[in-house]
Amino acid sequence: MSSKIFPDPKAALDGLLFDGMTVMSGGFGLSGNPESLIPQIRDSGVTGLTVVSNNAGAEGFGLWMLLQSRQITRMIASYVGDNKLFEEQFLSGELELELSPQGTLAERIRAGGAGIPGFYTRTGVGTTVAEGKPTEVFEGEEYVRETWLRADLAIIKAWRADPAGNLMFRKTARNFNPVMATAAKITVVEVEEIVPAGTFDPDCIHTPGIYVDRVVLSTINEKRIEKLTTRPKQATDGELQA
């Protein structure tokens, strides 16, 4: 069996990128973003991308790079947030946006990985989210039909991988990454650490290697904080007495 381990992010994406493709990109806010793979997609020059991601990064970080380079023409996301470039391109008509409720987005991706073309949910009934979509009544309640999401390529970030591509995620970086790994034709994973075969307890594997095609060691691990709130240090009783 050929090795799943690639020497660098550029090599890990070699031969996979083409104009008009659909890419799933993991992450939630700035946690668990494929920081090393996104710049390589930018540098490749591919255009007309449809990108499925919870959000589109923040200024100077993550998918924001692909918005800045005008390589994304369509986003399927659940959160626009404070990304001014995302907002500007959508409002100007430059970027097509399909806004999906967060839980629905996660389930659409999971359904894509599980081979389930459609499912029904109460979320979005009676709102613009349901416009143009079939509805059906179950036990007296109206539900809207949502369809699966699948992609040509998933780029995700994990904490650790072994040579077979088995993955472990760390805390909130787990977010959308595991489901996206199941819903694409090819899954490329960047990891903070590659460990020897046999390191993982099978019960501790979050994503089995069967879903992973290529693994590369991360070259960027910034782990930015999206919003940092602080307050002045409160004086202690001792300090007040002094």
From TrEMBL:
The keyword Hydrolase does not apply. It is an enzyme of class 2 (transferase). Keywords: Transferase. One of its GO terms (molecular function) is succinyl-CoA:3-oxo-acid CoA-transferase activity. Gene3D superfamilies: Glutaconate Coenzyme A-transferase. InterPro entries: 3-oxoacid_CoA-transf_A, CoA_trans_fam_I, NagB/RpiA_transferase-like. SMART domains: CoA_trans. It holds the Pfam family CoA_trans. Its EC number is 2.8.3.5. The keyword Transferase applies. This is 3-oxoacid CoA-transferase subunit A. The lineage of its organism: Bacteria, Pseudomonadati, Pseudomonadota, Alphaproteobacteria, Sphingomonadales.
